[in-house]
Amino acid sequence: GGDHTITYPILQAMAEKHGSVGLVHVDAHTDTGDKALGEKIYHGTPFRRCVEEGLLDCSRVVQIGIRGSSYDPDPYEYCREQGFRVVPAEECWRKSLVPLMEEVRKQMGDKPVYISFDIDGIDPAYAPGTGTPEIAGLTPAQALEIIRGCKGLNVVGCDLVEVAPMYDVSGNTALLGANLLFEMLCVLPGVKTT
C-alpha cells in the first residue's frame, strides 16, 4: 500500500543490511524525476533519490511496463544513463514475458534483489484503482509471469504500491493487488510452493 515514496526509506534500510541492491521495478512510470512543485521527495522521485544515495546496483535495475505521459522529450534518458534496463510497455504487448524474466534472472545473479510493483504497471482495464492510470499496460497474466519469474533470485524484500481502492468501485484493483503481493511472498527465498 501507500504511494511509491515508501520504497525510498525501505531501500535505505535494505542498503544498511545488504549494500546496494538490484531492482525489479514494474510501473507505468520510471519514478526518476528530480522534483515536483519544488519537492525532491514525492512518488515520482524515489529511484532518483536511491541512485543519488548509492542504494541501487544500477547495473542490476530493470524497469518493466514503462509508458505514459512525461515532461521530457526522452523520458528514459536518465534511467539509461544510470545503466538501468528499461522495458517499455510496447515491448511487452501480445507476448509472454517468460523469456524476458530468464534474461532478468541472469542479470540479477545471486546478489540481493528488491521487487517494487506499482499497480499502475497493470492496464487500468484490470486495475483502475490508482492515482495515475495509463492506458496500454501489462495484463495480470504478464504480472504473474514477472513475479513468478523472480523465483530463485535472492529477493530480500518487495512492495506493492499505489493501490487506491476508492477509485475502483468493483474492488478488482484491491483483489489484484492482494494476489500479486501474495505471489511476491511466494518467491521469497526458502518459501515452499509445491
Automatic annotation (TrEMBL):
GO BP annotations listed: putrescine biosynthetic process from arginine, via agmatine
Keywords: Hydrolase, Metal-binding
Lineage top rank: taxon: Eukaryota
Listed SUPFAM superfamilies: Arginase/deacetylase
Molecular function per GO: agmatinase activity; metal ion binding
InterPro entries found in the cross-reference section: Ureohydrolase, Ureohydrolase_dom_sf, Ureohydrolase_Mn_BS
A Pfam family that the UniProt record links to this protein: Arginase
Assigned protein family: Belongs to the arginase family. Agmatinase subfamily.
Protein name per Swiss-Prot or TrEMBL: SPEB protein
Record organism: Lophotis ruficrista
Gene (name only): Agmat
